[in-house]
Known about the structure:
2 helices; 6% helix; Acetoacetate decarboxylase-like; globular
Amino acid sequence: MEGFFFPRTPTGRSSIVPSPPWHYSGEMITVEYRTHPDRVAEMLPEGAELAEDDPGAVALIWADWQSCGDDFSELLDPYKSQYKECFAVIRCRWDDRDWSRSPFIWVDKDFALVRGYHQGYPKKLGDIWMTRPVTVGRAGPRLEPGGRFGATLTVAGRRIAEAVVTLTEPAPSPGFVNAHPMLHDRRWPAIESDGSMAVDEMVTMRGYDGEVADVWAGEAQLDVFDSPWDELAYLEPLEIIGGYYHRVGVSWRQGTTLRK
């Protein structure tokens, strides 16, 4: 039986995702803000501490991706390559290093959901939309001062986040919260369903062949709404730091197990 992930078959053709490496190209809209540091602390794994500088800093990031495996076949069947996601990022200190960490993340395609489980992202399904920049016509913002971008996240029929970023100037980087290696948990309950774990490990991952382009900073507005099913509002925005737009490309092959 073949296939990197289920369903496994004699050919492996039905696997929901191909074997790594995986390649990503896309664009991101980011809003950085400050929330209650004690609430960030509650989202950290055992042994991790708050970041020493700006401990309550959070990034809420919308991304519009095109992705594929190493044979690039998905690019000719765009339903299998295109997806959007929205994810929150916090920072922490663990093992004498600074890390970024995603406590919440939503995607709109099943292959992105399962691929995230392998990497350690706590992905759920959601409805994500972003304004696209344009180079012709008037039906979109240009990458120039005054360009306005909107982004929304709806989960289970409820709007839980919306943002507007108005570009002001080119920037050297798209923020500081999502600038470290990722620190993730991979946890899978045992089939006995008795509270034990079949998989319980801390991992890190970082891509290679990364490229960043068209980085712009701007002013940002962000509203986060409560929901019975999602807790993004627990990291409520108290103060906006700023907004960003950028394009990004990266490849990913493997992560590293830090603790079992």
